[in-house]
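Milestone 3.1: sequence recovery, worked example.
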């Protein structure tokens, strides 16, 4: 800390010294039954549940199932096109723009 610019016997320094020495007589304990009241307030008021909240996890599960089934149904075709498993097709070249090659395959 930097030294105070006030003289050592000033009123401000005496007030600060007295405040440091004064005991703190405030009560720090919670009143009787405080925890019970907090728990009752927290559990008693329930927010209304919207339809979106009820169906969100189910919709996520259905979307995951649909995505996995789409990948499973089209895996053979994707492997054939990307892996060059067809008779005259070559595998995708490494280092080239893969998006442009796939778009050229779609034409």
């Amino acid at each position: 800390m930097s030294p105070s610019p006030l003289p050592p016997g000033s009123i401000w320094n005496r007030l600060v010294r007295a405040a440091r020495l004064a005991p703190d007589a405030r009560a720090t304990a919670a009143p009787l039954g405080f925890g019970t009241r907090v728990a009752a307030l927290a559990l008693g008021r329930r927010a209304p549940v919207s339809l979106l909240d009820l169906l969100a996890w189910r919709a996520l599960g259905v979307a995951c199932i649909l995505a996995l089934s789409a990948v499973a149904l089209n895996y053979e075709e994707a492997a054939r096109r990307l892996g060059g498993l067809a008779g005259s097709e070559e595998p995708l070249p490494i280092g080239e723009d893969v998006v442009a090659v796939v778009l050229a395959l779609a034409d």
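Residues 52 and 59 are 9 Å apart (CA to CA). The radius of gyration is 37 Å.
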